[in-house]
Amino acid sequence: MAKFKNHTMHNQSQKWHRNGIKKPQSQRYKSLKSVDPKFLRNMCFAKKHNKKGLKKMQTNNAKAMTARAETIKALVKPKEVKPKIPKGDSHKLNGLAYTTHPKLRERLYPPKSKAKAQTKAQAVAATPAPAPASTHAAQVPKSPQAPTACQCEDGRTGMTPGLLSAWA
């Protein structure tokens, strides 16, 4: 059995009230709402009339908050709204969406080089209008390549181009 009591409540309330029970000042005044209550309490006991520390602390807090807000504004950029392509049966809308979309527009109309345009124009000018051909020539499609050993200019196979003059 223990001889002595470790905890006692004897005379405690008198001790608590010896200097008065202090409320933190931030509850008393609206101007001190954002200030740490412990800091205020300690300041009351240490320096009752000197509040330079509080003013410095408040100005530093304000500076820090404005700097933080500026950095957040700089970091967070507004996101660009991308046009959505409609899915479904609306073909006209689909085409419009493709033409207005910044990246898909490039896919729709690939860049045309001047060299390609010139070669196409030359090819159209070089080929004469097709003459009425026989039924055999109409069945075999002409190839754009030069005639090889197996194929002659007429589209017939098995004859070399050099022997064409002998048959004519």
TrEMBL record:
Q: Subcellular location, in the record's words?
A: Cytoplasm
Q: Biased-composition ranges for Low complexity?
A: 118-140
Q: Where is the composition biased (Basic and acidic residues)?
A: 80-92
Where do the record's region annotations for Disordered lie? 1-33, 80-105, 118-157
What UniProt keywords are attached to this protein's entry? Acetylation, Cytoplasm, Methylation, Phosphoprotein, Ribonucleoprotein, Ribosomal protein
Q: What does this protein do?
A: Component of the large ribosomal subunit. The ribosome is a large ribonucleoprotein complex responsible for the synthesis of proteins in the cell.
Q: What is this protein called?
A: 60S ribosomal protein L29
Annotated organism of origin: Nyctereutes procyonoides (Raccoon dog)
